[in-house]
Amino acid sequence: MNVWSISIRNFRHKPLYTFLSILILSVSIALLLAIQQMEASFKQQLENNLGNIDMVVGAKGSPLQLVLSSVLHIDNPTGNISYKEAQKLSKNPLVKMAVPISYGDNYKGYRIVGTTHNFSILYNATIEHGRVVQKPMEVVLGAAVAERFDLHIGDTFLSSHGLAEKNDHDHEEPLTVVGIYKLTHKILDRLIVTDLNTIWDVHHHEAAPNDNHEKEITSLLVTFRSPMGFLTLPRNINSNTTMQAALPKYELERLYQFTGVGVKTVTWIAYIILIISCITIFISLYRMVRDRAFDLALMRTYGANVPQLVKMVAYEGLLIVGIAFVVGILLSQIGVRFIFEMIMDQYKQSVPLLLNYKEIAQTGGLALLMVLLAIGLAISPIIKMNISKILSHEK
Q1: What pTM was computed for the model?
Q2: Do 269 and 148 fall within a single domain?
């Protein structure tokens, strides 16, 4: 007796039940895998984009907004601060490096950041083609920007005022590409870096070359010399200056806590769907065993033993979980890629797709365990089968 071929026929005999079982189980697997993958990808990308930045100093307002705008470049700035006051802070003995940044323009949605040569050091970035900025109106492109718009050394383009992509207010002064950074897989890949004077010039800041009092920047990115900086500088800045200090790691941890509630909710929904799918599989298999009790009893009289009948039911359940697992992986990857594409279109932020095989194995193992439990409950009539009663149609 070919147990496998009989299982295949049973599998195809009730297409509606089979389809529903596979659909529900694959959706639960897809949700679990997608949530795990997105959580891991977002967390790693956010931590990656921090670079060597320990503290951000900017205008008073929301500290989280300050971090999102100045470190991750996905929000509007809280305002501007005095460049002269920021320079005083950079001379503090607890500060190892302080990098001023100023922005407010974009090129087709990609932000243009005015800063110093130390900006690339925060991300351990090096020039792949060309050179660094040496004078105003020169720019160095992140690798993703250069690839997206097919820009090369010597090309020129006009920047647009504001941070929104759809803005008809273009500046008259063209920017010239003099360098392209190597790919870093960090936020720098999606930025256009220039000199501070470029930002001031295109916004018509009429200031003397050495007169810092009239100049403003968006924020200051700080790296501490020692852990003592974490304990004293943020509190001192927030209490005794007109500026605001925010710690990126602390603010992002708070963000994880806020979003973690939604992640846990979706995860529990996925587990509930998984349980429902296993109940559906149990009902399907159990009905098959009960409805075909006469055929199964007849097979016993022709030499089939209990293990063979159990295998027939088990193979059908394992076939369902195998197909659902493959479909679930495909659905999760399609869904995650779709979400990441939307993020890329809206925020110009690319997130790497991290596929953790350990989590895939754990999710697959959990689904298999649940289905094995359903199979175990469904085969109980086979084990307790009374052949003589069934064949004589007795209840």
Answers
A1: 0.72
A2: no
Give the chain's domain count.
Answer: 2
Asked if residues 293 and 390 have their Cβ atoms less than 8 Å apart, the reply is yes
- At 157 the three-state DSSP class reads strand
Return the top range by mean pLDDT from 162-166, 253-257, 348-352, 369-373: 369-373
- Domain boundary, last residue among 179, 211, 246: 246
On whether both 14 and 81 belong to a single domain, the answer is no
Are residues 87 and 37 part of one domain?
no
| 268 found inside a domain | yes
Phi, psi values for residue 140, rounded to 5°: -115, 130
* SS3 call for 111: strand
DSSP state of 165: S
The per-residue pLDDT for range 197-219, each reduced to its tens digit, is 999 888 764 444 444 447 899 99
Could you tell me the CA-to-CA distances from 175 to 28, 107, 198 in Å, in that order? 50, 10, 9
